[in-house]
Amino acid sequence: MIGNVNFLSEQFLALLREHYPTWREARAELNELPLSGLVWRM
To answer: Which pLDDT tens digit goes with each residue over 16-35?
Structure first.
């Protein structure tokens, strides 16, 4: 399965480009947002 990782990644990126062409801009915007200081309790 490890040998297929690059192939699966390329398939995933191809799907993103086809169905969500602005995904890179969305990723950049999300990466610029601050992380919350919220503490989760389980």
So the answer is: 999 999 999 999 999 998 87
Judged by phi (left if over 0) then psi (alpha if -120 to 50, else beta), residue 33 lies in: beta
Query: Are 20 and 27 within 8 A, CB to CB?
Result: no
**Both tokens of residue 37?**
């200081």
Q: How far apart are CA 17 and CA 24, in angstroms?
A: 9
- 30: how many CB neighbours lie within 10 A of its CB? 8
| Whole-angstrom distance, CA of residue 25 vs CA of residue 31 | 10
Q: Give pLDDT, residue 4.
A: 75
Q: What is the CA radius of gyration of the chain?
A: 15
